[in-house]
Amino acid sequence: MGIEVGGLLGLIWLIIVIWAVVKVAKSSAGGVAKVLWILGLLIFPLVGLIVWLLFGPKG
């Protein structure tokens, strides 16, 4: 049962990170800022997501 729960949580986490990447891509931030935010989200998923939620582009 532990593998199924871990797999489900991993899938949920992946969906959240993909959602964040899409939000960054659709934001009004400049091209370089978008690339940096997306790289941060992909390279450091947990820390990147927290930093993006706190300081990322809002529009």
From TrEMBL:
Subcellular location(s) of the protein: Cell membrane
Keyword RNA-binding among record annotations: no
Keywords, comma-separated and alphabetical: Cell membrane, Membrane, Transmembrane, Transmembrane helix
UniProt topology in membrane: Multi-pass membrane protein
Any Gene Ontology CC annotation: plasma membrane
Presence of keyword Chloroplast: no
Transmembrane region(s): 6-24, 36-55
InterPro entries assigned: CLS_N
Positions of the Cardiolipin synthase N-terminal domain: 15-57
Principal localisation: membrane
Designated name of the protein: Cardiolipin synthase N-terminal domain-containing protein
